Amino acid sequence: MISNGWKRSIGCRGIPGLVIATSGLVAMERRRDITNLSAGVAEEPAVVPAIVYAELLSGVLLADSPSRAAERRAKIDALVAAAPVVDFTPEIAEHWAALFVMLHQAGRMIPGNDLVVAATARSMAFGVLVGPADERHFRVVPELRVEVLG
């Protein structure tokens, strides 16, 4: 374990940096730790893929009350202040395509949005921060360091 309950996994390259998956943010929120993101990833730079940002914004729009929507939006704003949003670039698209073909041919596909997260991480030579529920399918991605918020 490293700071704030993060479980260190064996990395592929040892290069610092984390791409944060939605499941990692859900795990932080369940621990009531999302406002302490900058303390949790202080050891490494962190980014949020645009697809994760979109998933978070959908949570704001689906909120059951205006106050809950405002609370969720404030958390998102605090998150992107600590971990900037990364656009889906042509370079990331190339990684996505290569991973899609590799995983498809191996019969080990992962959900589409998570494939974007994995491609973003690989293109930046970063690891990925996930919650326990998503650990297994991120582990099928070759050369991807997976950090699990336990």
Q: Overview of this structure, please?
A:
- By secondary structure, this protein is α/β, with parallel strands linked by helices.
- Helix content is 51%, strand content 13%.
- It has seven helices and six strands; from the N terminus they run ββααβααβααβαβ.
- It has a six-stranded mixed beta sheet with strand order 1-6-5-2-3-4.
- Helix 3 packs antiparallel against helix 4 and helix 5 crosses helix 6.
- The longest helix is centred in the middle third of the chain and has 17 residues.
- The protein is globular.
- The N and C termini lie close together (9 Å).
- The N terminus is likely disordered.
Could you give the topology of this structure?
Layout: E1 6-7, E2 18-20, H1 22-30, H2 37-40, E3 46-49, H3 50-61, H4 66-82, E4 85-86, H5 90-106, H6 112-124, E5 127-130, H7 135-138, E6 146-149
Parallel strand pairs: 2-3, 2-5, 3-4, 5-6
Antiparallel strand pairs: 1-6
Helix pairs in contact: 3-4, 5-6
